[in-house]
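Annex B. Sample input.
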Amino acid sequence: MTEPHPPSPERAAAPSRPLGRDLIVLEAIAMIDSDGLDRLTMRALGHRLGVDPMALYRYVNGREDLLEGIVEQLVGQIQVDPDGRLGPTDGWQGMLQWLAHSVRQIALEHPRIFPLIATRHPAAPWLRPPLRSLRVVEDFLAGLTDRGFTDAQAVHTYRAFTSFLLGHLLLEVSAAGATTAPVEEPLDEGDATLPTHDQELDPATYPTISRTSSLLSEDHTQQDFEIALEALLDRLDLSLSQ
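Annex B, continued. Sample output.
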């Protein structure tokens, strides 16, 4: 009888690696990329890894915690300044162009996973997907203020930029066949004793976020919508008048 979820080609060809959270998360990503999110179960993942599914609960608290690990892994790949190659003299446009294309690359490489970044609960209510990591937001805001933006201008740019990225990329991955409906999540399935992965706001680590925390917490949803809509109408009007 054919195995429903054989080990991935990479795992079958590679030497045996010790089971751990990183390996489980990476194999889950490969499984979703190939089979889809609805096929990801602890039982199927254990079979793919060649271990008893109960062994996974030593490292992840069930499927919900696994999904958090997957989102953390993808968001962790986002780099505002690649290897420190962009300096203040390179301009804010170059920084945002680099960042937008790098996030889009992640979405295109993992179209079935990218919607998770939009639907999972962020570590702070004002964190906006896909830039939903404190590290990424700190680098983003600091990169803009280093290039002459005021705190208020940097926060406004963060809101506008994330809205553009999320709207466009969700449409793009949806056209590629990804489902954008919220994932039905079971409650904690395991008894593993795992540390929390929520991020804490340490002023020493995130000084720009700490300085702009009150601005980030303000609700400008209605205003941002109207500004974006007006900008779109102005752009269409310019295009039609040419």
